[in-house]
Amino acid sequence: MANKGPAYGMSRDVQSKIEKKYDEELEDRLVEWIVAQCGAAVGRPERGRLGFQVWLKNGIVLSRLVNSLYPDGSKPVKIPDAPPTMVFKQMEQIAQFLKAAEDYGVIKTDMFQTVDLFEAKDMAAVQRTLVALGSLAVTKNDGHYHGDPNWFMKKAQEHKREFTESQLKEGKNVIGLQMGSNKGASQAGMSYGRPRQIIS
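The chain above was modelled as a monomer; its predicted structure follows.
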C-alpha cells in the first residue's frame, strides 16, 4: 500500500522475525498442490515470498482453490469474470476465501488476516492457512482433493467407542492407579527434618 513506510527499530525487528518464519520449501509444495488442484490455468508465481504474495493477492487463485474442494453444485465463492483491480474488491475476494475456508473446517487460529496477504505482513500465516486447508482436504478423503496425499498430514479424527452395559459395570470395579494403591511403598517410618521443639 502507498501509505506504508519503512520500518525502523522494534517494528523492523518484529517484521524481520515474521519474515523468517516463511518457508520456501513449503512454498514449492503449496504451489504444486494449488496447480494440481485448480489446473494449469492459475499459472505459477515467481519464486520467493513476494512472488507468492503477488500470485495470491487478488484472491482469485485462493477462491478457485477453495471452490475446487466442493462438489460442482455448491461452490461457496463467486469468482468474477475479470480479476478485480480495485483494492477493496481484491480484499473482499480474499475475505470470501477466508469465510469459505472457515466453513470448510479450518479453525480460526490457523486463519490469516486479509492484510497478512494483501500487504505481505505475514506470509507464513498464509502458508499456515493453506496447509490447514490441504490437511482437511486429505482427511475428508471425499474425492475432491487432487495431488499427492503425502503433501499434507491427515488431521486426527474422532474414534468413538461403544461399550455394553456389562463392560461399564465391570469398569466400576477397577481401581485406577491414580487413586493410589495399597501395595508398594508407604510413608511409615519416614521423618522430615527435626521434630518441633517445645520449650516451656
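The domain at 11-151 is CATH 1.10.418.10 (Actin-binding Protein, T-fimbrin; domain 1).
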